[in-house]
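step: validate -> pass
step: tokenize input -> pass
step: predict -> running
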Amino acid sequence: MKASKSDDAISINAGSAELASPARKRARRRLGAIESEGATLPDLRSQVSMDSSEPITRQIHRALRQAIFAGQMVPGTPLSEKEVSDMFHVSRQPVREAFIKLVEAGVLQVLPQRGTFVKRISPRRVREGRFIREAIETAVARKAAQHITDEQIRQLTDNLRDQRIAAKANDTAAFLALDEAFHSTIAQTIDCGAAWDAIQDIKAQMDRVRYLSLPDDSPLDHLIKQHAKILAALRAHDPDAAEAAMRAHLREILVTFGPIAARNPAWFEADERETVPLAD
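step: predict -> pass
step: emit ->
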């Protein structure tokens, strides 16, 4: 699918074409969730292990982040340090640190005298995140094509096989985890984990939109074909093709954002346009 050359493609007012009936039904269910379940904190205890060597703050941050991205905590869901610390049986300090990271990523907001809430998605931050992610990951793909090893190609090939299995089972959660691993593995091929770490918060808003996009706006088979083109370019050690394939893949959101925002208006903030379009 060809991406628009204008940022209008990712405007919150774009994509106002009529929605298919199944999509309308899913939209109503999502909007209903905001109205009826917005105050519900999901049970995330299984996502945190006191026996793990990983710092507890990082585990709590990841569990909350994933729950927000997956729509388990919709915009407007209130969060309190006490409630979360009680759920995980920890002190408030690691919870407070996790909250700070999520505020910095733009997915939580603190309202004076009211509390902390899951924030709506910012269309502008989606555009900014895509622009920065494209700049980093296309550079990574170009260098990866020059240095990737046979073993790393095998890892990506296995990942792509598992993506097809997840798509056939319509397991979007498994697919998204594999998608994340696919991109992370490419970054690891150039021995620059910092490149992937640098875009985690930058792509936070993109990840939230990505969950809303499946499978209506971004069919899994379509995304897998894009991944396959990236892998083919890496296997051929073709930097130009790898960069182009990665760019096309990351610009998919320019096409899908409009319909997503039109179908889920309660999930999005009012748009704030930048003076220089970021998709040209």
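step: describe -> The beta strands are 78-79, 108-111, 115-118.
step: cleanup -> pass
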